[in-house]
Amino acid sequence: MVNVIIxxxxxxxxxxxxxxxxxxxxxxxDKHEMDRGGVYLTQNVLMFxxxxxxxxxxxxxxxxxxxxxxxxxxxxxxxxxxxxxxxxYKHASRLxxxxxxxxxxxxxxxxxxxxxxxxxxxxxxxxxxxVISLAIPIFMAKVRTLDRxxxxxxxxxxxxxxSVFVIGESRYxxxxxxxxxxxxxxPSELAKIVFVFFVAAMLANDVSFxxxxxTTAAAAAYVLALVAERDLGAAVIFFVTYLIMLYVATRQxxxxxxxxxxxxxxxxxxxxxxxxxxxxxxAWQDPWGNYNDAGYQIAQSLFAIGTGGWFGMGLFQGSPxxxxxxxxxxxxxxISEEMGALFSICLILVYFxxxxxxxxxxxxxxxxxxxxxxxxxxxxYGFQLFLCIGGVTKLIPHTGVTMPLISYGGSSVLSTIIIxxxxxxxxxxxxxxxxxxxxxxxxxxxxxxEAEYR
Length: 454
Description:
Elements: H1 2-26, H2 37-62, H3 65-88, H4 94-114, H5 116-142, H6 150-162, H7 164-167, E1 169-171, E2 174-180, E3 183-185, H8 187-203, H9 209-228, H10 232-250, H11 253-273, H12 275-285, H13 296-308, H14 331-339, H15 341-364, H16 368-392, H17 410-453
Antiparallel strand pairs: 1-2, 2-3
Helix pairs in contact: 1-2, 1-15, 2-3, 2-4, 3-4, 3-5, 4-5, 4-15, 5-17, 6-8, 6-9, 8-9, 8-10, 8-16, 8-17, 9-10, 10-11, 10-16, 11-12, 13-14, 14-15, 15-16, 15-17, 16-17
């Protein structure tokens, strides 16, 4: 009977995931946030149904009462998050909040399936991150001098990255972790947010050649520090984020071309200097020819994705544990194997709708600092997603970055939730700008009418 439920659930989950993904793009057809209420409510129903069905299967397969308690705790967290956001921030983007909760739900489901203890730790960190995120939009609305702290951001971000040289730990060939109270943290995950604030503050109102040289030198210091730590995935994200922000600030394509050429040269140098870079390139070129060595991880990933087919094998019906580091770097492969390619495609569409919303917000912002901030965070988020999915599907060499909000990694979850909160704060600032503009027009029209009457 349990096997019948699991097999039936595969198709139900795909249908629900497809409906949720479709609703993510339906909201863009309505001009006003208040007109989208029905769509958001439907999303809420769909996400909670998916969450319930997945944990029902997990409980049936494990027969462990802890799974019910864990599900209830998550349900309370997500319901509270949705209610608090809609109460405290009445004009917030509910699409951003819904998608954040949905991605976290999927992450908890697959992590519970792979390693319950890791899922619990991730849940604790997510609670703390959501609590922090609730204060960020208020902070951004109250503090109007964020664009004046450029040097502070630059120094703070670099010190965060450099901290691993003093108290860092080496994992998977990179020295980019620190441990605090039993929890591991990647400083580069939080530093990338500070880095975006730094670049936005430096280039928002001054794009002179001198300012560009100073900012580029600082950005190069960040990237070189990450290279020294052998955290090349993060180095690439910082590099691409800076190039995009520089181009948006200056509108000069020659800077982009020069940066891309420099990046290509740096890639060749990294290939020659670092053994683990060569190993990943070799694995990318021919994983089957190096199956017993460098290509094992990517080959197992491709096996998992191919085995899952369109609808997946069902939760607990696959063997994702055969993929090394599956809970973090290769979690997309585990989802594809047990929940199917169609579910994974819908997941990518949800991610893409977030990116589309981020870019849409950045285009509507007027203040250069806020516009650059939104663009930088969008670039960082979007390129990280590309590196993660591209790596596990053999589109590009694997870089070891996590899948936002789903992969195991407290620092990754914390930084992504903060990114969502900052974007939410920018959205609310834009809503305030629109409100003040409409009020000013109303006063002008009223003054004009009174003048005509006289």
